[in-house]
Write a structure and sequence with these properties.
Length: 149
């Protein structure tokens, strides 16, 4: 394979640089959330539930980008800590809708502060206009690939 057929320099390959940024963000979030005894998936679950209470395990897994099995473990851990509540039996079908407890809302508030600090640090090199553009462009990239199905 000739060089022109490959991705070229990794520093110029959008997918590689995007993965590098995502990994750096994940590492920074893991570090920031560790003192709160939260993982990134746990924080993400709390954040999604605060905005969309009552989601099922499968819906949460899709929203947080983990498998249903992983989400089951995340929810069980959050429930054991009193941060999330789920009914013992499903109100309809098999889905057990999850909601935040008051302790979960308090933990989310603390976690949101540290995550926002990480995000601010990541976006420091950009003006507000460029931050908005970056958000728009990344959303457009995701949509372009999602619509290719």
């Amino acid at each position: 394979m000739e060089q022109s057929e490959g991705v070229g320099s990794l520093d110029q390959a959008v997918g590689y640089v995007l993965k590098r940024a995502a990994t750096a963000l994940r590492t920074a979030m893991d570090t920031a959330l560790r003192p709160l005894d939260l993982t990134v998936p746990q924080y993400s679950c709390l954040e999604v539930l605060s905005q969309r209470p009552g989601l099922s395990n499968a819906e949460l897994a899709r929203a947080v980008f983990v498998t249903r099995q992983s989400m089951n473990l995340v929810l069980r851990g959050l429930q054991d800590r009193g941060l999330v509540t789920r009914p013992a039996t499903a109100p309809q079908g098999r889905a057990l809708p999850s909601t935040l407890t008051p302790a979960g809302r308090a933990q989310l508030h603390a976690a949101s502060i540290v995550v926002k600090t990480v995000e601010k640090r990541m976006l420091e090199p950009f003006s507000v206009t460029h931050q908005d553009r970056l958000l728009h462009d990344l959303a457009a990239c995701a949509e372009a690939l999602a619509n290719e199905k």
